[in-house]
Amino acid sequence: MSMPADPTRPDACRALENEHIVHFYERQDDLADRVADFLAEGLRRGGPALIVATEAHTRAIGAALEGKQIDLPAAIQSGRLTLLDARDVLASVTTAGMPDAAGFADRLGGAVTAAINSAPHTGLRIYDEMIDVLWQTANAAAAVRLEDLWNDMADSRRFSLFSALAGRRDAEQARSEALAALEEAESAAARTVQSREEQLRALVHAIRTPLNVILGWAQMAELKTEPAIVDRALGAIRNNAQQLARLLDGLDMSGPDAIPFDMSRGTAR
Amino acid sequence: MSTVLIVEDDRDSRDMLCTWLQQHGYATLTAADGQEALEKLKHAPDSLSLILLDLMMPGMTGWQFRTSQRADRRFRKVPVVVMTAHPNPAGEAEWLDPEDVLLKPIDLQAVLNVVSRCCGPLSKPGDPHHPFGT
After folding, report:
1. Which of B19, B56, B105 sits opposite A220 (nearest CB)?
2. Longest dimension (CA), chain B
3. pTM for this structure?
4. In this complex, is the C-beta atom of B13 within 8 Å of any C-beta atom belonging to chain A?
5. pLDDT band at A27, cuts 50/70/90?
6. What distance in Å separates residue A241's CA from the closest CA in chain B?
7. So what's the ipTM on this one?
8. Sign of CA dihedral A129, A131, A133, A136
């Protein structure tokens, strides 16, 4: 399968049979319009089309096609337009992180053949976004492998393939995403710190309360007081010392993220 | 006889303060949280001389109780002594406007001093009103 010398050329819609067009896009609306141009050209001639795209992009491309006076329901109903979810297909053809030939042939071979047969005398146009999905997740090896599989399929079937890749991403979008990720990380860290502080405060409170009782009753018992009071003091001291011991026994010190204290119950877990 | 309302969620702590104050001639009432304390106040607003108030309690906290108490003219004048483990009691005191602040772990002699100061002269064992009698 040949690739155009200038993959970003504006006349991408004029695809030759068995041509693989790679379009680098920076804006989503630009992508949908380019893909719609490519597909509409074939659909208007009564040819079949296959879209393998993410749900959001499928909607955007569909809207762009309708804007180009393509009757989508009729095209779908007649079998000339087939829609597949890029992530679903990708998941079904991927084994251990790499697209495999058997899975690819099984999942896409039938769809491509059926699309070709729906209008055998005009060329099938395919828009595929799976390569872009892999590209955006920095899975370059899998993206290259997938491209090879498409090229292999083109050896036995006649179609034009349009692939889009997120090119130089808009600097502001990239910056915005990076900032959002940073803010989320900072927020998560702050929540963790706050949670730890709350746990520590609750733990200190749970230690201080029985300690307060022990010290208070001991202070009373030290005074020359009635035997009955001393007995109560000893009982309270014993009970609260046991409470402290249970608290310490229950502390989970097994790791840096261990939650040592169940605040809801006021006791160590 | 001066009556002190002890508002403290920990039963042993309440019992300890009751015993201590009764030993020194004070009558006591107890409440396990702010809501119960408000109920006690409603039933005996005139007989109470002082409230010893813990802050960290389940249900209605000491802060919430103090807010409600100060909003009710029937018992807003009953003085409050806050018992807290807060490392910055002065900051709390400013907002709660207590008569005094007792730091936890509580020193019983300090309790006695502040209660004595707020409630006036105390009865001694052997006095007719002393709960332990002679």
Report:
1. B19
2. 43
3. 0.49
4. yes
5. confident
6. 12
7. 0.77
8. negative
Instruction: Say whether the peptide bond before residue A73 is cis (omega within 30 degrees of 0).
Output: no
Is B19's CB within 8 Å of A219's CB?
no
**Subunit contact A213:B13, Cβ cutoff 8 A:** yes
Interface test with A, best of B10, B12, B106, B107 (most A CBs within 10 A): B12
- Of A166, A135, A133, A172, the closest CA to residue A25 belongs to A166
CB-nearest to A236 from B12, B106, B109 is: B12
Residue A136 above 70 pLDDT?
A: yes
Assess contact for A212 and B104: CB atoms under 8 A.
yes
Distance CA A241, CA A245 (A): 6
How far apart (Å, rounded) are the C-alpha atoms in residues A50 and A84?
8
What are the pLDDT digits (tens) for A78-102? 888 999 999 999 999 998 888 899 9
What are the chain A neighbours of B105 within 8 Å (beta carbons)? 208, 211-212, 215-216
Nearest to A211 among B19, B105, B107 (CB): B105
Distance CA A114, CA A103 (A): 17
CA distance A19 to B78: 90
Q: Where are the beta strands (DSSP E) in chain A?
A: 20-25, 49-53, 81-85, 94-95, 98-99, 124-128, 159-166, 261-262, 267-268
Place of tokens 């009751």: B18
Contact between A217 and B16 using a beta-carbon 8 Å cutoff: yes
Q: Assign 3-state DSSP to chain A and report helix, strand, coil percentages, each to 5.
A: 60, 15, 25
B10, A216 Cβ separation under 8 angstroms = no
Contact yes or no for A51/A127 (Cβ under 8 A):
yes
Q: Which residues neighbour B51 within 8 Å (Cβ) at sequence distance 6 or greater?
A: B4, B5, B7, B37, B69, B78, B79, B80, B81
pLDDT under 70: residue ranges of chain B:
45, 87-94, 121-134
Give the closest residue to B134 by CA, choosing from B124, B31, A138.
B124
Contact B105/A208, CB-based, under 8 Å? yes
Q: Give the contacts of A248 (CB within 8 A, at least 6 positions apart).
A: A268
C-alpha B22/C-alpha B93 separation (Å) is 27
